[in-house]
Amino acid sequence: LNHLNYQTLIATKAARIHEIGLGRPLLEFGIRRAHGKGGNAGARAALIGGADFTSNVGISHVLGYPPQGTHAHSMVQAFIALGYSELEAFQAYADVYPDDCLLLVDTVNSLESGLPNAIKVFEQLRQRGHEPVGIRLDSGDLAYLSIQAACMLDKAGFPDTTIVISGNLDELTIWQILTQIQGEAPRYGIEPDDLIGRLVYGVGTRLITSRGNSALGGVYKLVAIKKQGQWEPAIKLSETLSKTPNPGNKRVWRIYDKRDYATADLLGLGDENPQDMEGLRLHHPTDHTKVRVLYQDDIAEIEPLLVEVLRDGEVVYKNHTIEEMRQQRVSDMERLDPGVRRLIKPHIYHVSLTQELWDLKQDLIRSMRQ
Amino acid sequence: LNHLNYQTLIATKAARIHEIGLGRPLLEFGIRRAHGKGGNAGARAALIGGADFTSNVGISHVLGYPPQGTHAHSMVQAFIALGYSELEAFQAYADVYPDDCLLLVDTVNSLESGLPNAIKVFEQLRQRGHEPVGIRLDSGDLAYLSIQAACMLDKAGFPDTTIVISGNLDELTIWQILTQIQGEAPRYGIEPDDLIGRLVYGVGTRLITSRGNSALGGVYKLVAIKKQGQWEPAIKLSETLSKTPNPGNKRVWRIYDKRDYATADLLGLGDENPQDMEGLRLHHPTDHTKVRVLYQDDIAEIEPLLVEVLRDGEVVYKNHTIEEMRQQRVSDMERLDPGVRRLIKPHIYHVSLTQELWDLKQDLIRSMRQ
Question: Which of A79, A248, A363, B218 could form an S-S bond across to A89 if both were Cys, CB 3.0 to 4.6 Å?
Fold first, then answer.
């Protein structure tokens, strides 16, 4: 439960951030703010959920993924403290990484010092036959600065360099930055889509800790117990209707409509099969007045979601690679209705109950109350 | 940094929760919602910061601490599903743990089922020469229910049994519950102090993830670098004054006033010693208009806070036991002014700079800007 809750939370958060980012790469930058060793599982979950790379070198190594990040401020600071300049720090870095040269430009001042110095180094690199990768902005008004950076880089002949933005980003901040770029960039002669097309997001704290909603409330509740080979359903009452667990040995299915969008998730008892049901009655999980009926003609596919992992103490599940899980996430997400995917006040996608499960639940609640 | 940030955060959160709890025991219950394996370090940090025990069996074992928790709802649910009753579940539990019998009473209904059943079991236990430990309330209005539970337990002759409360608790919720008990209990003939004196808090999600503020923003910044055996100070500029790091090889001291309360933390350069300073000039960390002067006559103690842990790659620090760290926390907390310890809008305790450090910082900022 400890592992499930956290990793599901972070994969979901990463999916939300990726979703708003207009397809641009997302780098997970959070290890320093992660909850101890949990950060490793979080970085892996982020990769599955929507991050393209992580700066967590250890977990990248374990997963066989290349880590991605930039140099630190300390590299530039060390040069300056020893009597050299930001330019010399950048040059030294470019000497070591001529083909991976991405420079963090805000140690002194992004527009007045960092960018002019980065452009000098990029020109020197090009003269030596290398193409620079880009720059990183880590403070200040990231929308404004990225527009100005794009102007300067374009003018200097580097219209294709990447602009990494970072600094307390999350899905809402990125959304706001993109909106601001779309409105502001044309005033400076920059095509917003061109600028957005060179952005990369570095997201740390607010991804790895899902800041603001740092826990997913998954619980372990007994729902059935075997008595002489038969499942006996179990229940627990609660003052809050939605907290009363659904009893019994159950299955869950996802039902796709003719548009190939998921239209409902349906929870039923283990011996039920929605394929066999003529008029599929979907009960709202708690509101007894709401029942929806689906006919097989309206249904494109019924996908069983429950996957067997353990049988008699043996693992019967084949592990998937990160890449396979990423693909699964992409194809699952594509089959969700845009209304459900909305970032703020999305359409709530309830997990409905079959008639049989609904009846069982009501019976058990009644018998417990007596 | 990963380990420092998280553990400091959770120890602080635990201290806040302990602080508001009027000295009653605090149990850390968060493992299922913790960030993966990070939960172990979090439980340890909670024990140092203010929790008395944790339900995390693994880390308790490692630390040599007894774990503490209660039985789960599933125990009662299993009995009911198999055709027995809540009372029989409680009796079975009491048979196994006659001297540690603490019963979770909200599986069916706390006041109508759980408590009457618990009282029956407690009476049976007493007849057999054992004293029951208490009950746990895990849902509903915990202030109201704990008052009603106290009434019922008192009337049944168990005025000393513990009442554990749990369910999305944090420092503010506990504060509210205690305030409500103080106001409401007398109406039911219950002395508030007596009731509060039998409470125990079980705090999970909001402690182990510091929900709402799930990260402490500790950073690694280069502040000095050795050049021919000499420390050269380094700096990084920032648009935000408070984010510009304090340069140089530094020390930090805590200064106690004649009341033996900490009156200031002072950051100075490595070769400075506040003991030698006649009029100690404390510079506000960012506001250049604020300087405070302390004279040695006003000072009870100057405590150096920086402790050497590594020297030339060797660990030179003696590890302390959890108990020693708890003691340290208690004595440190006692020397903080009540205004600083206040839960909401506390007096902000700035870390001040010495004159020498202040001057160095201004010089470096000026030279970077040029």
Answer: A79
